[in-house]
Amino acid sequence: MSLSIVIMAAGKGTRMKSSRPKVLHKLAGRPMLSHVIASTSGLNAAQQVVITGHGAEMVEAAMTAEFAQAPLQFVRQEPQLGTGHAVQQAVPVLPDDGITLILNGDTPLIHASTAQALIDACAGKQLALLTIRLDDPTGYGRIVRDETGVKVLAIVEHKDATPEQRAICEVYTGMMAAPTAKLKQWLSRLNNNNAQGEYYITDLIEIFLNHGLRVQAISVKDNEEVMGVNDRQDLLNAQRWIQKKINMKWMDSGVTFINPQGTYISLETTFEEDVVLYPNIYLEGKTHVGYLHRGFEKLMERRTFIQCFPIVCRICVPEPDFNEYCYAAAVEELAGIRSPVRADWIRTLILEMGRINSYMMYLGGQAGAFGLGVIAQWTTYVRDLMLDRFEELTGARIYHMFIMPGGVRDGLPEGFDQRMEETLCEMERTLKDVYEVMFCNTVFKKRSVGVGVIDPAWLEDYGVTGPNARAAGVAKDVRKDQPYLVYPELDFAPVTGQDSDIYTRADVRRRDVLVSIDLIRQILAKMPRSGPLMAKVPNVLHWKIPRGETYVRGECSRGEYGYYLVTDGSGYPRRVNVRGPSYTHAMALLERMIVNVNISDVAGLMVSLHTYPPEIER
C-alpha cells in the first residue's frame, strides 16, 4: 500500500516575532521542518508533499538543497485559510489510493516509530488520530470516546465542552493518517462556517463518523515528542529536550560531558570514543571530533609502490617533500637502489625549499594568534614566490611528486639560479620586516616571553625534536646527527635557544629560515650540472621488492620525520608507519603544557608547537 506524507508548513508564526518562516527556525543546527522530513524519510513514502505559504521561496529552496535526493514535492497555500484548506492544496498531487499521513512542520520532535504507529492504526480503512494527555488541557479540543474507550466519537472544542468533557485530559495533536481515497473525497465537503472563516482538518472526524467509518486515536507516551513550537519559549524547550537526547546518545557511546547543560551539539556532530567535552562548547554543522580517518598508512598497503606517491605527499600538505624523500629512500634501500649524486643535490635543494615554505606558514600563524595579522600577509607573499620556483622546477605548486625511487624527475631549468636568488633576497628583506614588526613588538613579547615553556627534562620523555627541542638548548638535528643526502658537504650549524618559550621557538624558526637560505645558495654553487638524474629501476607497474624492513629519517621543519617500511616480496608494501613529529608535539606534549594556561594564550601555544593534523592520524 502506497504512502503519501503531507507536511503543513505554510504558517507565518506570528508569535516568533521574526521575518524568517517559522519552520526554518533552527533546532539542534537544523530547521524544524528538516527534522520532520528526516524523521519520516525512512517510512518509504512514495512522496512527501510540503505545503508552503509564508516565505514559500525560502522554505522550498532550503529543503531542496538539504534533501536533494528525497521525493519532495511542494504545493502553495495562498492565502492561508486553515489546516483543512492547506491539505486541500495537496489533493491534485495525491494518488487515488493508499494512506496519507498528515504532519505539522512545527512539530520537529516527532519520531518515525510514532508516525509508523499512526499509519498502522489507519491500515487504509479508518481515520487515525494522534493524541496526548495533558495535566492542564485548558484551551485544547477534547477527544471524546465511547464507553469502551476505543472509538472516537468527536473532538469538542474547549469553549463548547460540557463540565464532564472539560474533565477529559486527552487532546488532539493536529496529526492524523487517513485512507487517501476517502480523504480526497471528503476534503471538498469541509466548510468555513465558523468565527474565523477557515477550513479545519478536524471537521473530517464528523464526516468520517457520519459515513460509518471508524475513527481511532492513539496516544503518545512522551508529550515532548509532539511539542508544537509557536514562540521562542517553545523553541527553547524543544532545544533543551533534543539536546538532552543527543547528549545521552553520545554518553552511551563513550563520550564524557563535564557539564551537559553547558554543552551544545548539533545532530550532525559525531565523536570518537573517549572524547571529553568541557563546559561552554558549541559544535554545529558537520563536525567530526576525533580522528581525520584518512587512513594513509592502510591505503598504502593496498597500492603498488609507485601508486603510494600521490598518497604520501598528502600526509603533510605545507611540506610534502619530506614524505616523498623518506618514502623513496626507504624503497631504494630495500630494493638495493642508489640514487645518482646529482639527484641527491636536487633532493637536498627541494627539502630546503620546502622547509622555508613551512616556516613561512608558521610565522604567519604564530603572529596571527597574537593579533599581528599583517605578518601572515607578508610571509604568504614570499611563500608564494617560493611556490613559483617549485612550479618552475617540478610543474606543480603543492603536490610535487618530484622525488621518485631512483632519483628525481628532471634537472634545474635554465635561469633557475638567478630567479631563485631573487626570491631569496626578497625573503631576507621580508624577514627583516618580520623581525622588527613581530619580534621587537612589545605586545608580542608580553604574550610570548615566559609563556608555554617546555622543560628540557621533558624532551626525551615526550619525544620532542626539531625547533621545539633546539629552543630548549638541545642541538638536535638529523641533518647533523645522522647526515643524509649531501648535508655532510654543506657548512651550517643547528640554530638553538635557551628560554624554551613561545618567543624563543618562534625566533629559532626565524633564524632557521636564514640558515636554509644560505644552504640553498651553497647547494646551487656546489651541485653538479651534468650526470644522471635517475638510477635504473624495474618496471614500476610490476615492481616486487624483496622481503625486508627499514627506517629512514630526515629533519623536517618540525623535527625528526621518518618512515618505517616493511616489504614481503610482493608488489605492495606489507606495512608503512610514518613518524611525524606532530603526533608527540600536538598530543602528549600539548596535553602536559596546556594545564593552567590562560585561555587567550592557548591558540598561541598550539601554533608555537608547529604541528600538522594529518601527521597525527595517518
Which parts are unreliable, with pLDDT below 50 for 5 consecutive residues or more? none
> Helical region count?
22
| CATH topology term of the largest domain | Cytochrome-c3 Hydrogenase, chain B
Radius of gyration, CA atoms, in whole angstroms:
34 Å
- List the strand order in the largest sheet: 5-4-1-6-10-7-11
Task: Report how far the terminal alpha carbons are from each other.
Answer: 49 Å
Name given to the CATH architecture of the largest domain? Orthogonal Bundle
Count of separate structural domains? 3
Describe this structure in words.
By secondary structure, the protein is an alpha/beta fold. The chain has three domains: 3-226, Alpha-Beta Complex (Spore Coat Polysaccharide Biosynthesis Protein SpsA, Chain A); 253-289, no CATH class; 296-616, Cytochrome-c3 Hydrogenase, chain B (Orthogonal Bundle). The strands form eight sheets. The chain has a seven-stranded mixed sheet with strand order 5-4-1-6-10-7-11. It has a three-stranded antiparallel sheet with strand order 20-21-22. Helix 12 runs antiparallel to helix 13 and helix 13 (373-394) runs antiparallel to helix 14. The two termini are 49 Å apart.
Briefly summarize what is shown.
The protein is α/β, with parallel strands linked by helices and 618 residues long.
